[in-house]
Amino acid sequence: MAKQLERVSFAQFQTQTDAPDLLAIQLDSFQEFLQADVDPKNREKKGLEGVFSSTFPIESTDGNIVIEYVHYEVGELKYTQEEAFDKNLTYSAPLKVIFRLIDRKTGEIKEKDIYIGDFPIMTNRGTFIINGAERVVVNQIYKSPGVLFSAKNKEYSSKIVPEKGSWLEFLIDTKKDLMYVRIDSRRKVLVTMLLRALGMTVEDIILRFFDMQEVVLDDSSEAVSRLVGQYLGETVYDAENNVIASAMDKLFPNTVNQFFQKGVHSVKIITSESLQKNKTLVNTLEKDDAKDNMQKAVKKIYSILHPGEAAPFDVIVRDLNNMFFNNRYYDLGEVGRYKLVMKLYNDLEKQDRDALLTSYTLSFEDISRALRHLIAVANEEEPVDDVDHLGNRRVRSVSELIVAPITSAFSTVEKSIYEKLSTREIEDLSPQNIISIKPIMSAINDFFGMSQLSQFMDQTNPISELTHKRRLSALGPGGLSRDRAGFEVRDVHYTHYGRVCPIETPEGPNIGLIVSLAIFARVNHYGFLETPYLVVKDGKVTQEIVYLSANEEENMYIVPVNVEMDRDFNILEEFPRVRYKGEFELVPKSKVQLMDVSALQLLSVSAALIPFIEHDDANRALMGSNMQRQAMPLLKATSPIVGTGMEYYVARDSRAVILAQEEGQITAVDSTSITLKTKKGSTSYKLSKFRRTNQDTSFNQKPVINVGDKVSPGDILADGFGTEQGELALGKNAVVAFMPWNGYNYEDAVLLSEKLIKDDDFTSIYTTVFECPALETKLGAEEITRELPNVGEDALRNLDEDGIVRIGAYVKPGDILVGKVTPKGEPTETPEFRLLHAIFGEKAKDVRDTSQRVPHGEDGVVVDVKVFTIKNGDELSPGVLKLIKVYLAKKRKIKPGDKIAGRHGNKGVVSRVMREEDMPFLPDGRPVDVLLNPLGVPSRMNLGQLFETLLGYAGLKLGVKYQCAAFQGASLEQIETQIDLANDKLLKELREERSRYGEAEEQIKEYWDIVKLKKDGKYHLRDGRTGEFFEKPVFVGVMYVLKLHHMVDDKLHARSVGPYSLVTQQPLRGKANFGGQRLGEMEVWALEAYGVANLLQEMMTVKSDDTDGRVRVYEGIIKGKNVTAPNIPESFNVLVQELRGLALDIQVYDKNGKRVPLNEKEKEMLDMRVHLV
After folding, report:
1. For residues 752, 755, 757 and 759, what is the CA-based torsion angle, rounded to 10 degrees?
2. For strand 780-781 and strand 749-753, is the pairing parallel, antiparallel, or unpaired?
3. Contact assessment for residue 193 and residue 304, using Cβ atoms and an 8 Å cutoff
4. 617-645: pLDDT as tens digits
5. Residue 557 covered by a domain
6. Which of 133, 290, 538, 900 shows the smallest number of beta carbons within 10 Å?
7. Domain span at 504
8. Total domain count for the chain?
9. Are 788 and 843 found together in one domain?
């Protein structure tokens, strides 16, 4: 039975090593969206259920008709995954929604289920199959809704960003010492104007922002002097209710005297501390000319929001209140409200804060607290927020990303329902003819087919597949654009620890904008990234695990996983080094609150596959993790001798391998299925055979167990592509030597031994598919046939009687795969034509040959042919009568020009394949497999490859595999120990072998000194060609080498003649278009420097856009004649036409003064003139 491969580990400390399900972010999110397995009554108001619940019920304007949503049902899957792949269909299930129409007048209730359409369903691999292609919905990381405080150029701002509705931005201008507000990025106004427009009086503003004290009035001079210069906290009235002084008025001596005269006993004044703290607000109130006039404030705000429009006052007030206080127009969303409460209400108890989480509109208290916090930020009492902190960025997974277009479609549906309810008669009304479902399915199809975040899956190998599903993108709708994204948003942030990988990101313009989820990270209920920690109590590490978001972790003292502990998990260091708010500090162990769960915690899956990554420069580690995704799965998969322990989890969670789900015994095994007998009965596991992937690699599964084996849940039943014994296996363990060799490994070039080609070590299977549809045209149906016009029997040799290529045929460029004819405009059928047609069949008919041929640059063996027809009940695209798919496979051996790489960013191109006997060989006679340039190591600072090479050689000799996870790799002492163990084993084997031939111990020892493994890894190699020793010892060992999908067969291209551009008449560009080689300006300079005038003229005329000249040259080559002088190039004609377009009549004359025609029309015109003369 196939158990997980045992590896020798060098970990110095115990860690939580079991990785969670790496596809959980995709699978859980879609499960939350659809809730297909949940009883409709118990579904949470999330995902699809949330969209329906928030849109319905809908009432008619008179309130007589109500349309209610009852529930939805997801039917059985329409096709299997194999059918969807083969027939270019979508893997989907029918979605039905039950609606109820209630007529309140008559009490009549109509309930009807409406078929919405076929909804794409996620596979168990976390992907969608759309039109036969596997796609992934990438997670988006974006700025979270809520409140955010920032500072720029002495201006402090507080932005309240909702999920739906108007943005509200409060500003403090420290130069003018005034407070402003801006709605939806429009013109700013004084903040007090908005507060007054929303219905707050000056007294309300004072109550919310200022502290007051009551002063009892007596006629002493002390009381007068104490009041003068103060600001009133409330309006003061006399006995007849007349205003003596208004709130916020500054008190002068005559005003105070009036108080005495009018018999005022006490007044409330604003305290001086409060005045000083809120000085900006005082200045704003003083400057605001509309503070005493609500009508003026309302009209001013409305004129900014709707310039040039007029409306009644009551309508303006209603609209203004709806803008922030009505959940129909404004929605902070669950996340926005949570962020706002956590930021502004942290003085309340937890239960009081929780009570505030249910309201998703703004309140006066929210606005007041936001302004008070902004004042505190401006006074440097509170810090500004960090936009790049992961507490302010959240993840939108597949559920939310699908909900967004559906919600938008429902707003269209809602409008159409209101329209129909107001125009139709009640008798005609039923849910079916009121609810238009077209916009909903259109939105779903557009999202999966065209959204920037719905991507064609990278399926080169299991790790590329898994990484694509765990990717986080800051781009896409509602995200950033790569042109405007600055350095800060791309940079590594301290909150990324354990949540986002600091290493894995693209090298191009998307650097830092597309990142990868860390291994143990997960997305919480609010969409924030969390990472696990072990709880530490009184200096002892407990086994309790807590998941914390970046905000929750902010004030915690966290020790790394390598802190010194005893067997009972007590921390031994009195002052351990901790992480605190992104800094490293030494604190007493009693203050420690948490400990990391694993040394791999900060890395993504790809980065965690690199052994000794701690010895690599970050740039090279980045390249190493990216290049593993480009590794071609090899024919003979071999897992690395020096691994990290993550190989098993990658193979498991990429779903490339098949694992037993239950305990049982294997009763049948063949290449296509495995049968397992369990207590419940028999379970059959179907294996995928040579299925083509999105990147034309071959997905093939093969059993690794035998009949009679007993298995437990999680045991490996079958290996997939790029796996061996249930572990990821992308490359080969090759014996490498770091030495220059006759310039063949100059500048990262690599020399290979022919042995690797003989043994098929770097051979991969490349699979391509060609589709040939027979369509219904206006002139008749296309036909798949062997009877092709003007095609000889030799070209038809591989076709069967239906005109389809036979399986097993080797085909080259230009060979026919599927014979097809398309009708031309048929002439009237004369008796002679009918007779010829009866005798010669298709060949005499007026059809043209539109057969599917092998394109330029492709060849291979036909491995499968699939035929789908409407007659057989196959569902095909509209207008397609028959679809033939031909699969070609080709074994690609490694050759010069192919790109290979290690796991440490050490990449190179194969420059030469050497005969095995000519390669340098070790003292024991073994030739090395790969020669690398030693200069590729020091400047790149990726020393991890040297540690791997040294340990790998010991592993090869011992026959064991190692686990060197990040920060837990073998030390040099441990590597030396493994070399000693290998030497002991080798010496024992040598003694046993040599003693049989009667060799003396001295002779054995003498030979042993030559062949034993060296601790520094350096050996005296001999030149395979001469047998001479090389001058210096060479570093030799075993490195895991990958073959990347940049293969020379896909890049090499040659052309004599081919297609030309219609306008410029120059050869097309690129291999796909069978294009030519481009000579740019600088290439012309280079040729000019060599003085090759005739070659240059040839290249720029007859080989480019001299249409007549190239025909004559071709003719001359065939007839063996000399080539005549070139004509006017087409680019000159294009220039002339451009100038004529600018109304300049350009005419061309030869040296004899005779006008030269530039096209056929001009030639006819000139000929006519000559004829008339």
Report:
1. -140
2. unpaired
3. no
4. 999 999 999 999 999 999 999 999 999 99
5. yes
6. 538
7. 480-518+520-585
8. 6
9. yes
